[in-house]
Design brief:
The complex is a heterodimer of chains A (232) and B (45). Chain A is mainly alpha-helical and 232 residues long. Chain A contains eleven helices and no strands. The longest helix of chain A has 35 residues. Helices cover 84% and strands 0% of the residues of chain B. Classes of the chains: A mainly alpha (232), B mainly alpha (45).
Chain lengths: 232, 45
């Protein structure tokens, strides 16, 4: 198991930042307007966690940062945020619990994401990793891309094109940097003391795309939270 | 049972659980489409 990032406070902040986005929902719930705002607040938070989860491996490849444990945290955050959203739909359904889970294509793709995340989260422990051996990595790798695709479809059926574009922009660099040829090139670049200009240019382009996507999603999240607090 | 056998057995069990979850999810979706109609389910105005 990989080491945690150095420093107790920075380590806590790196692991717990997704909580900051959902805490305002407590105030909104106390005002009785939870279901008006829960979906977008929890949804954007989960998407940001997914992006963070996918960014961990490329960052390790790039700078050998000791942050592998953060992948576990962000993956579990995606599951627990999604499960919380699904639970709200079951507890406060528009008609009945089944309708809350699959009444529209948006609800159904949300349930599909949780169905895919459930075995991932259940087998995210070190014990499961030991039990499954080399199959564990294969499972996690395939399922994480299935979840990535399902989130994309979830955003597409919502017809929210800006968040969908931002999601693709933010995750495309992680996909590119995970390709074997790119990983090999980056490892050689790192071993050579980051001296090749071409890789700096490539990473600047990919980094700009990712930052653009993340900033758009963060802006959407902050905007939704502001509306929720103001409207409650 | 060998270590490899245990790994493959656990992976198979996991695959069965995943398939059951997916079948249940698809069944739910089909049930709701039949109840509400495709256009309403897809939220087509």
């Amino acid at each position: 198991m990989a080491r945690s990032p150095e420093g107790k406070l920075s380590g806590f902040l790196l692991r717990a930042w997704p909580l900051a986005f959902v805490l305002p929902l407590v105030y909104v719930a106390l005002k009785g307007k939870l279901m008006d705002y829960a979906d977008p607040v929890i949804g954007f938070d989960a998407v940001l966690c997914m992006i963070a989860c996918l960014a961990v491996t490329p960052l390790i490849t790039l700078a050998k940062m000791p942050i592998a444990k953060l992948r576990w945290w962000y993956g579990n955050w995606v599951f627990f945020l999604g499960a919380a959203g699904l639970e709200l739909h079951v507890v406060y359904p528009p008609v009945n619990p089944l309708c809350g889970m699959a009444g529209t294509s948006v609800d159904w793709t949300g349930t599909l994401i949780i169905a895919l995340l459930l075995p991932m989260t259940a087998t995210s422990s070190t014990a499961a990793q030991k039990l499954l051996g080399p199959e564990w990595k294969r499972w996690q790798r395939w399922l994480v891309w299935a979840v990535w695709g399902a989130i994309g479809i979830h955003l597409a059926v919502m017809m929210t094109w800006l968040p969908l574009t931002a999601y693709v922009l933010a995750t495309a660099p992680a996909i590119v940097l995970r390709q074997p040829a790119a990983r090999k090139g980056i490892k050689a670049w790192r071993a050579g003391g980051y001296s090749t200009l071409a890789w700096w240019v490539r990473l600047a382009v990919l980094g700009s795309l990712a930052v653009t996507g993340i900033v758009i999603l963060l802006a959407e999240e902050v905007s939704v939270i502001a509306s929720a607090v103001a409207g409650a | 049972m060998s270590a490899r056998g245990k790994q493959l057995g656990s992976a198979t069990l996991l695959a069965v659980v995943l398939i059951l979850l997916l079948v249940g999810t698809v069944y739910l979706g089909v049930y709701e489409v039949q109840c509400n109609g495709v256009a309403a389910w897809l939220r087509i105005p």
